[in-house]
Structures are given as structure tokens and as C-alpha cells.
Amino acid sequence: MDLTYLNTFREVALRQSFTRAAEELGYAQSSVTAQIQKLEKAYGVQLFERFGKGLRLTSAGEELLRFTVQMLDLHQQSKERLGRQSGGTLSVGTIDSLAAYFLPPFLQEIRERYEGLSVRLQTGRETHILKQVKEGELDLGLILDGEPSDPSLAWQTIRDEPLVLLASPEHPLCRMKKIELEHVAGAEWIMPEESCNYRIMLENILKKNGIPYAIGLELGNPEAIKRCVMSGSGISLLPRMAAAAEIGRGELVSLPFAHPDLRLTLLLALHPKKWISTPLRGFIERIGSAVN
């Protein structure tokens, strides 16, 4: 069977859209549809089903996807080993803050180092990223968490990432030399989304210590959070990397606050049986050399 069809199938499954898969692959949508139909005819099953305006895999499609990932991975492995090629695709899953503030220089460097390498960067929630790593849909995952959460994966600790309590320069808390928990009682918080690891850590600490708090805004994007803190009276907690530029320019203030239970680690997750290509190995080694 032509591996092109399987590659197309993987793209449709990944993007849950014939249109977006066609755009990514540079095909006409009709070509993508025809390839999927040929696969369905060859296997005698339906691979996708529609729900509302969306598209999802059938149970047969999910099973084929697992085989497809392995077959395409083996194909790439054979090409590199026999042809000593350094191209192919590197698929990285991560969260928004790492995609925006940590990864760009490493991605550019790896693309310059390995001519012909295509990099696919996907962002999402930590749980979804780890699921995709386990299923072989991603080569690796990079997340921020207190500690490795899934023992079935292979983990590498990259570095500690400090969390900083942020306020605008005019905020009353900026006049204090040291911030204790009681000083933020009743403060208005600008929080990331509910599933965010460090928001969960913060709320657990506040609740455990009986510190009242109010959520003025809940935003899913670090840039939006920073803008709202700069223009309002709220405070927020973000990884230092996400606010380093604004702190340096004096647009935000990192308040003198610390708590032993507020700690994040930059973690790299791999499937334990993942074949490590030359570009993937180079990328892991380069990320592993990152320091605070």
C-alpha cells in the first residue's frame, strides 16, 4: 500500500479536518478525500465519522492510526539509516507559554542544523500532550509541572522554572519589601484557565491557608493576562519566562513573594519505545542544555 495514503490519513486524523490536512500537505481537498476513500475500501471499514461540524475517528480509524504511526516511523527510520538523511518531521507538543517564550530559538537552531527538517509544533493542555506522546502522535512533549505525572512515559528534567507574582508598578503591594500570604487576602486575581497547573497550585495554597481571594478575570493566554495586569488593579502568577521582558522594561513588577509549594519544573516526555532519529536526538540534547 502506498505510504502516501497513510501519511494523508494521519494528517486528517491529527487535524480532524480534510480541508486543513489538504492545506498542510499541499493537496487539493478532493485528492485527500479520494485517498481516504481508497484506504477505507482497502480495509473494508469506515475510518472517520462526522459529529456536528467536526470530524473524528471511528474505532477502526483509531486502531489504524496506531499502526500508521508505527509504519511511518519505521519508514522514516529506514530512510535515515540507509540514506543518512537528516530530514523528516519533528513533532513537538507543548503549552502556550513554552511555545511563545522558550522554544523559538531552539526550533530555529534545529532547523538550521538539519537541512530539510520540518518541525510541527502543537500546543494544548498538558494532559492532551501526554496522551499524544503515549499514542505516538508526537515525538516528544514539553510541559511545566511540579513533577512527572505519568510513570509509563520516559521523563527528562530540563530545569526549574520560577513562578513570579506580578503587579503593575502602581499597585499598593509594590511598596512592600516582602509579601506574605496574608498580604494578598482579598486581592483581585487575573487567573489563567482552570486546568492550568500553577493556578491549581496557587488556589490549593490559598484555600489551605484560609486566604480569601477573588477572580476578576480568567484568561487562557499569558499575553492577555499580562496586558490586563498592566492596565488594571489585579495581580497574577506566571512563569518567569513569560514576563521577563515586561519586568525588564518596568511595565510589570515581580513582587517579593515565594512559597515552597509554588514550584514548576520544565519536563520533557518521551514514549519509552520511541525511536530516536538524529534530529530528535540533537533537539533533545540542545533542550537538555538549557539553563535558567
Task: Describe, in plain words, how this protein is organized in 3D.
This protein has a 5-stranded mixed beta sheet with strand order 4-3-5-12-6, sandwiched between helices. A 3-stranded antiparallel beta sheet has the order 10-7-11, with helices on both faces. The protein contains 11 helices and 12 strands. Helix 1 packs across helix 3 and helix 2 packs across helix 3. With 292 residues, the chain is α/β, with parallel strands linked by helices. It starts with a helix and ends with a helix.
Stretches where pLDDT falls below 50 for ≥5 residues? none
Number of strands: 12
Helix-and-strand structural type: alpha/beta
Instruction: Bin the strand percentage.
Output: 15-25%
In short:
The protein has 292 residues and is of the alpha/beta class. 44% of the residues lie in helices and 22% in strands.
